[in-house]
Predict the structure.
Amino acid sequence: MQFEEFSREQLPGLVRFAAVLTGDRELAQDVVQDALVRAHQGWRRMAVVDRPDLYMRKIVVNGYLSWRRRWYQRSVHVTADVSRFGEPIAPDPAWRISDADQLAGPLARLSRAQRASIVLRFYEDRDDDEIAAVLGCAPGTVRSHISRGLSALRVHLDEGVNEGKESV
């Protein structure tokens, strides 16, 4: 498979995955773009891997885990024509924004490893071994990240329920 074909096939899923992982669509696009650049540079090695899709997710997760360390390397280019930014590209239904906000808040409180593990498990439907391969850790560590992350999410949800009862 050629890199162009692989990236065209994987791009939508990678951006969705990264958006859930980062909680920020623009950052997700940046992380995926960086991951695709890295994958293109090492495509000869990557093309022979059994599961290049998992390897791409590993690159995305690593990029997400280290993006703060590299923020100063990013550059912003000024564009002369800003009028096109005011035009909507596609309609964005309010329910999608609401769902994303409800999901992003609790996930943002987790550690990066817990968030990555939970997103890979419940959003990407990956098993422990696949998640361990992406995160570069043992399957037991993955189970620990998921368990602790879910416990933290339960605490957050319980706090929200209790706050709602107090206001009534």
